[in-house]
Specification:
Number of helices: 11
CATH class of the largest domain: Alpha Beta
Helix content: 25-40%
Distance between the termini: 22 Å
Structural class: alpha+beta
CATH topology of the largest domain: Rossmann fold
Shape: globular
Number of domains: 3
Strand content: 25-35%
Length: 361
């Protein structure tokens, strides 16, 4: 059997570079080598495309060290037009070597310059099939303010919020302060375009407001302020339907917080204490069915392509969509694969399904 060639693309210029690299370690370890020939391509923090080592251990998360793509002197030469799918590499000594034709690209990139439609547009210009959301859905999903606006218009319940730029704040600080105060305390202050809880602060006193804004503005020019909701943090995975069918939604997982203010970067990726990921979550059948219905509606509202993780707050009576993540954390211990594993779809089969969806789209 001829193996399909899959470029696993990871790293990138965003603040989530290391998380993308860690995800690559999990994908490289689990991808079905009987079906796929893998070409690992890393993007350095400076934006250089390099041929990386096909070594899952190199990109494993470990205490005190986050994996990254380092410039090794190679350069990936993408196809010159849509008339070719040949990928080549230029070595450090200047020699050029063919890596063969590529069937699909798996862009496991998180954050800006990768998850926001940037790479998706690049791959569409080259005519290369790729895993996940398309350009528009990626751009929508990356911007929390745009996502919430679209979901609200589609009748999907969302948490009350405001969004503003630094220029807005400079022009009328008191106006935006009044609007923020109208949400009550506590509030969450977030960059509009970032993930993995990078740049997020919980504000329990208005004395913390200025510091939280600076942290968020360091990541993006637009900041979101959201009303805090008292309730359970639950989420589920969504996959594009096959042959025009309805989206498929996994069982629910729950983030149980016992010793931290919220599910921050350290808890997500550095095994900090005070967080348990429970999957499947303890929910009544009717509650789960309603959550899955809203998740599918949210997925379709923002574009309905590839995959997403839909995050909720559940008050016990109502579900509120917090975010729609179009390229969720994908390490084997991340919630998206855990939810699908609990739904009967193993990690390696999940990877195969995503690649197959990309090839037939």
């Amino acid at each position: 059997m001829v193996k399909a060639a899959v470029v696993v693309l990871f790293g990138g210029r965003s603040s989530e570079h290391s998380i993308s690299s860690a995800t690559a370690g999990g994908v490289l370890r689990a991808i079905d080598r009987e079906r796929f020939r893998v070409v690992p391509v890393g993007i350095t923090r400076d934006g250089a495309f390099v041929l990386e080592d096909d070594d899952p251990d190199k990109f494993a998360l470990s205490h005190g060290a986050l994996p990254e793509v380092v410039d090794n002197g190679t350069r990936i030469l993408w196809p010159e037009s849509t008339l070719s799918r040949e990928l080549r590499v230029r070595r450090g000594d200047g020699t050029v070597e063919s890596l063969g034709d590529i069937d699909v690209v798996f862009p496991i990139l998180h954050g800006r310059f990768g998850e926001d439609g940037t790479v998706q547009g690049f791959l569409e210009l080259l005519g290369l099939p790729y895993v996940g959301a398309g350009l528009l859905m990626s751009a929508i999903g990356m911007d929390k303010h745009t996502t919430k606006s679209i979901l609200k218009a589609a009748g999907v319940p969302v948490v009350p919020w405001i969004a503003f730029t630094r220029s807005d704040l400079d022009r009328d600080r008191e106006l935006w302060m009044r609007r923020a105060r109208s949400l009550g305390l506590p509030v969450f202050v977030k960059p509009a375009r970032a993930g993995s809880s990078v740049g997020v602060s919980k504000v329990s006193s208005w004395d913390e407001w200025d510091a939280a804004l600076e942290v968020a503005f360091a990541e993006d020019a637009t900041v979101l302020v959201e009303q805090a909701v008292v309730g359970r943090e639950v989420e589920c995975g969504v996959l594009e339907g096959r042959d025009g069918g309805a989206p498929r939604v996994s069982v629910a997982g729950e983030i149980v917080i016992s010793g931290r203010d919220f599910y921050d970067f350290e808890a997500k990726y550095l095994d900090a204490p005070g967080i348990d990921l429970v999957c499947p979550a303890d929910m009544h059948d009717g509650e789960l069915a309603e959550m899955q219905r809203i998740a599918a509606r949210a997925f379709e509202a923002v574009g309905g392509e590839g995959l997403a993780r839909v995050d909720f707050f559940f008050t016990g009576t109502d579900f509120y969509v917090n975010e729609v993540n179009t390229m969720p954390g994908f390490t084997p211990i991340s919630m998206f694969p855990k939810c699908w594993i609990a739904s009967g779809l193993p990690y390696d089969a999940l990877l195969t399904e995503l690649i197959d969806l990309a090839r037939v789209r």
